[in-house]
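Table S5 (text form). Sequence records supplied for joint modeling of the two-component complex.
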Amino acid sequence: MVGSGVEVSINGSLTNGISAKHLTALDEESFDPTAVVAEPVPEVVESNGDGEKDKREIVLGRNVHTTCLEVTEPDADDESTGDKDAYMASVLSRYRKTLLERTKHHLGYPYNLDFDYGALGQLQHFSINNLGDPFIESNYGVHSRQFEVGVLDWFARLWEIEKSDYWGYITNCGTEGNLHGILVGREVFPDGILYASKESHYSVFKAARMYRMECIKIATLITGEIDCADFKTKLLPNKDKPAILNVNIGTTVKGAVDDLDLVIQTLEECGYSHDRFYIHCDGALFGLMMPFVKRAPKVTFKKPIGSVSVSGHKFVGCPMPCGVQLTRIQHINALSRNVEYLASRDATIMGSRNGHAPIFLWYTLNRKGYKGFQKEVQKCLINAHYLKDQLRGAGISAMLNELSSTVVFERPKDEEFVRRWQLACEGNMAHIIVMPNVTIEKLDYFLNELVKERSTWYSDEKIQPPCLAADIGRDNCSCALHT
Amino acid sequence: MVGSGVEVSINGSLTNGISAKHLTALDEESFDPTAVVAEPVPEVVESNGDGEKDKREIVLGRNVHTTCLEVTEPDADDESTGDKDAYMASVLSRYRKTLLERTKHHLGYPYNLDFDYGALGQLQHFSINNLGDPFIESNYGVHSRQFEVGVLDWFARLWEIEKSDYWGYITNCGTEGNLHGILVGREVFPDGILYASKESHYSVFKAARMYRMECIKIATLITGEIDCADFKTKLLPNKDKPAILNVNIGTTVKGAVDDLDLVIQTLEECGYSHDRFYIHCDGALFGLMMPFVKRAPKVTFKKPIGSVSVSGHKFVGCPMPCGVQLTRIQHINALSRNVEYLASRDATIMGSRNGHAPIFLWYTLNRKGYKGFQKEVQKCLINAHYLKDQLRGAGISAMLNELSSTVVFERPKDEEFVRRWQLACEGNMAHIIVMPNVTIEKLDYFLNELVKERSTWYSDEKIQPPCLAADIGRDNCSCALHT
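The corresponding structure-token record, covering 966 residues in total, follows.
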């Protein structure tokens, strides 16, 4: 142990950092911490017999192992031959081609793939890390807090909260925003019950399990919105406990926007005063779109909400997932009052945080501005209407929520077609999310292909397109029964 | 509501996605979802009077607001004048200069700032997202799972577990690895108690609060290692409950490596069979270094451990934080058996995951190989010894754990000096983590500056350097009393 006075000669100098325990184990042979193992390349671990293996359940797919790019040990002469560099360059070049092709055929996920961050390439050489809190500078100097806070201020203005009244940070993704918002809610109301519509993002229910919270699922309308009648029924028997609510500003599958005002009204009607509930708004995609749409129910901190999160790689577009999380500073102050409580120097979920993401966001927000985003929102909604109209015109079941750019339609019968266009599916539904990079030309290209291929899927009259009445309503269904 | 048969003319086409509720609210005026708000630029929210403000506690620093880079709305003529582009280019150029300078003067954090990912610049144009599980392909095609699994396999070989026996993923940072490892432990033993030495990373205690787990802190030796005598004392009265352990492979402040074998032995001595405990190894920095050091206590899945995590931006080096998390597939299978249980399509913490990070790691692992890392580890340990010897030679208190490249020494008196060199400090201690990018030249530059400035800090005999005996042991202390 250090302090025991043991002194051993290491590399000709005296050192005191040796533990007596280790010395004994080494039979008083001098320990050289700089000595390395003789063979650094580990053996490949082999199976210990197949008997065990047969019994093993394979729950998670292992298919990626068959296509994965193995990391190989460099040969001794790689530097002179350049073989390794050539191999890697060829892998990357092929990969880039795949990315180009996959980016071109992409319609199903809410990612704006249209961005040009060429000007930021110069920053890739730096290890930028916004350790911990955005508002507390750490000693690590290679950070981008000045950009991060600029971005947060922009969102604070969008969601109508004073600079000195909010706290927030740039997260790694929408899920982290939800994990944070619900955690803040739980810390404000430790015995609160979490309520969320059943069409909420799966991270909301993951949070409930992680945080060991009681969670009650609420039914939804056919649009995908929370059913406030059902909410009321489930609130009333639990009036003795505070309510923590997840409100969806755009659900994952149908892009439905929960009616925030009706949710608040329901809480009030059930006798909940404003200090007995906490609302987290999951604005993953639409949190940035709604403010620009006339008459959309407004997400604003002027209403009694606790937090809002939005993804940065969705409507804004970013090379990697990221998000924005804003909450009221009083909630964070309450948590931070007792440092032991969060056992942390900060109130974020992650300790180390990607410092590049805020710069990407800052760059786009500066270039586009509120007005630029409004134009893009308008374009998306117009194109989404176009897509929905064309689908219905071609006799294909389809629905578009009024505040949404998510077009839900009949799931294509051919899985290869689904994969090719990277459509997200659930049951008989598929959806396309019309993002700023989705042009009318791209939609036409898709529609032509769909209509053509679909005619072959259903050329045999015995095979009929599925009925979607239960999913999207009779009026939106074009099946044989409902046309 | 959809399905109610309401049809309203929108943009000349028929639509059915209108909720009756909204129609009523709008007095039967037709709702145009593509109509935008007249003034998209939100008002700046003003304070509602100063009385409130005086009462507000400012717990978290707000200083970053004074230096932050505001996002500004583009002017109408920006495109023609190019003013905005010029402004942003100048901001970025200044920022790049700061990063260069800050990267040059960096010694306190365990980040390897020496990397060249120029060949990967071509990928920055893509929104690469490894949604969910690395082994389950989603329909989103712009991913990098083939690289991710290659990297995981490399670590599986390092930590001696068969490909078909492990599950893992590339995380956003070391904290996510700890959050995941401890969550898996809790799901394996829902009533388990979490044990962690008091010098464990703060994310471990954050996890305990998040997950509502009972957590017991264990004392440490002066080296920073877990004190297994104290561990035993605290285990014995809790023998009725399973144990979940966080074992540090390199503590944050002192770089101390907990003795994994002694920890397991202690558990066994206290009567814990292997199916009554779960060990998570937090290998943030040293998890990748230890395997290459002769006689270092081996981190391997051949021992009864449940998971290992390591950071990717630390020893490997990466532009943004990331990490690797590996666990046994049977634990993940147990979780996934009931999908409702995790309420998730995957067993990661985050849903969307940065697809660039695995490519950075894959690139470096391929270039360096196990042998390359061994060389770097050796260089770091030699340089760390050099630094420690030079400090002691100059009469400055300093300690270096035998398996570590973290040199703990007397905290410099001048905070400006601490900031300039980005040293992490705790109480009277500062530390330098000797990473591959820290050369002898850089250390000499630092040492010369320290020795010179220190002579001015203590030129007045009335002011004495602090005593560090309680922090790093009497033998390592060079204060007036212990020299």
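Note: The CA atoms of residues 131 and 140 of chain A lie 8 Å apart.
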